[in-house]
Amino acid sequence: MVYLHDMGQAARDRILSQELPAYGSTECRTGPPLAQRRIAIITTSGLHRRTDQPFALGVGEYRIIPADTGADELIMSHISSNFDRTGFQQDLNVVFPIDRLRDLAVDGFIDSIAGYHYAFMGATPPDAHQAVALDIAGLLLEDKVNGVVLAGV
């Protein structure tokens, strides 16, 4: 990982000059107990199926990962040169904890696993994801998801 103090002055200035989007407040709400939750994973790892198009730089897009997708079918096309893929290469669950969700479902700790999960490429400006966030919200509702694991990397 590259730290800000390790970067050249021009790179530091470019990063520090960017304005962050303003987000309003959202009230926290309680929901059903975990044993009644259908859980989906949303990851920012740039993960997708081998047959999907790789992620593009700075574009607000996502990939759908069906729950029955095998680990050998998933690849990572995260663009950031500072992104360490070592953990993913050793254990998919570092960026996409699907096996842990399966364990929780078998043990009855959660009700079920969503039929579909979603991946973004994390090195993308947040405002580029605003439009697709509404798409994913609709897809989550269709799948009757009432809980999400946010696997930010």
Number of helices: 4
Radius of gyration from the alpha-carbon trace, in angstroms: 17 Å
Q: β content, as a range?
A: 15-25%
Q: Which word captures the global form?
A: globular
The chain-level structural class is: alpha/beta
For the record, the count of structural domains works out to: 1
Tell me which oligomeric state these chains represent.
single chain
The ordered string of helix (H) and strand (E) elements is HEEEEHHEEHE
Mean pLDDT equals 87
Taking the alpha carbons of the first and last residues, their distance comes to 12 Å
Helical residue percent band: 10-25%
What kind of sheet is the major sheet? 5 strands, mixed
What are the segments in which pLDDT stays under 50 over at least 5 consecutive residues?
none
- Total number of β-strand segments? 7
Structure description:
The chain has 153 residues and is α/β, with parallel strands linked by helices. It starts with 8 loop residues before the first helix and ends with a strand. The model has no long low-confidence stretch (mean pLDDT 87). Helices cover 24% and strands 18% of the residues.
Task: List strands and helices in order, with pairings.
Elements: H1 9-17, E1 38-43, E2 47-49, E3 63-66, E4 74-76, H2 86-90, H3 98-106, E5 112-113, E6 116-119, H4 130-142, E7 147-151
Parallel strand pairs: 1-5, 1-6, 1-7
Antiparallel strand pairs: 2-4, 3-6
